[in-house]
Design a protein that fits this description.
The protein has 11 helices and 10 strands. By secondary structure, the chain is an alpha/beta fold. It has 2 domains: about 270 residues, Alpha-Beta Barrel (TIM Barrel); about 30 residues, no CATH class. The strands form 2 sheets. Strands 1-2-3-4-5-6-7-10 form an 8-stranded parallel barrel, surrounded by 5 helices. Strands 8-9 form a two-stranded antiparallel sheet. Helix 3 packs parallel to helix 6, helix 4 runs antiparallel to helix 5 and helix 10 packs across helix 11. The chain is globular.
């Protein structure tokens, strides 16, 4: 994505909503367009067959963005698409290089479909997942007590002990991917993740932009992920946009019900008027919703369109 291609006030939907339930790519496309969205985002849940079936339709209706890896990796089921077998943060050189190679394949798909943005999932720090220390206290309503903060500190300190080597691995991966993105005239966007051990955390976003200042790399903000990190005491949700808005290229929208994510906006407990007030009006926004009935998705689109119009009028 070149500098003169500015994001527009567009509302799109991710294929996450029906990729697992609609195996035929043509029918999948028709279902999503029937919901009334202008554009589609290709999620990590699409199979190679679905992508091939979608291509004739997408050449006339280019996706706004693609999440890496797309299509799913060989030997990976659609239901396991969020758990990568290979990672851009891997300390195993062969695995990391394979992750880079597969990412470049996703970028090549983006070029073929004239999709300007590839959203990267960078991996994680290889540490024992201590999320349960926070989630149990949150579920018991003890979010505001001192013990909660102690558990957050305990978990994040364990991450810090191992994160440096994984940061270096990600930097090597991003070096290769930025070079390819420049050649392909693509934008690659690093996404904030929901779990404390995933990469990037808040500080790592700043580290990566410092290292690759002036590159085709941008920031992709997931509203639900930011809210989850806040609820688990890791990072205030609004700080991501406050610090990295100059790099922002797109936003994923989904609601939370407690700690359960990917619900249609308006069906959970997030404050959507406040969220839209914090987002740039002229910005690509993509609904990323787990499989559900069509009616709440249509209502979510209407809610987001209404809030977008209020932004424009204000």
């Amino acid at each position: 994505m070149t500098d003169n291609q500015q994001p527009i006030n567009m509302l799109a939907i991710s294929t996450m909503w029906n990729a697992l339930n609609q195996s035929d790519g043509a029918a999948l496309f028709d279902e999503l367009k029937t919901l009334g969205f202008e554009k589609l985002e290709l999620s990590r849940h699409l199979t190679p067959d679905q992508v091939e079936q979608l291509k004739p339709y997408l050449r006339e209706n280019s996706p706004c963005s693609i999440h890496n890896f797309c299509p799913i990796l060989p030997g990976t089921s659609q239901t396991a698409a969020e758990t990568d077998k290979i990672s851009l943060s891997s300390l195993n050189a062969d695995e990391r290089q394979e992750a880079v190679r597969r990412t470049i394949q996703t970028m090549e798909l983006a070029v073929e479909l004239e999709t300007p943005i590839v959203v990267l999932h960078l991996g994680e720090v290889d540490t024992y997942d201590r999320s349960y220390l926070m989630t149990e206290l949150y579920d018991y309503g003890e979010r505001e007590f001192e013990a909660f903060g102690q558990k957050v500190t305990e978990a994040t300190e364990w991450r810090k002990r191992k994160e440096a080597k994984h940061q270096d691995a990600v930097l090597r991966s991003l070096d290769a991917l930025n070079e390819s993105a420049l050649r392909m005239e693509l934008c690659i966007a690093i996404e904030n993740r929901p779990r404390y051990y995933q990469i990037p955390n808040f500080d790592e976003v700043g580290l990566f932009f410092e290292k690759f200042y002036g590159s085709p790399m941008r920031y992709w903000h997931d509203v639900g992920h930011a809210a989850l990190q806040e609820r688990l005491g890791v990072c205030w949700a609004d700080t991501w946009l406050e610090h990295y808005s100059e790099h922002l290229v797109g936003v994923n929208l989904h609601d939370l019900q407690g700690l359960r994510a990917y619900h249609p906006p308006g069906t959970g407990d997030l404050e959507w008027d406040e969220i839209f007030a914090a987002l740039p009006a002229e910005m690509l926004k993509v609904l990323e919703i787990r499989p559900c009935e069509a009616a709440p998705v249509t209502e979510a689109r209407e809610l987001c369109e209404s809030l977008s119009n209020e932004q424009a009028d204000g």
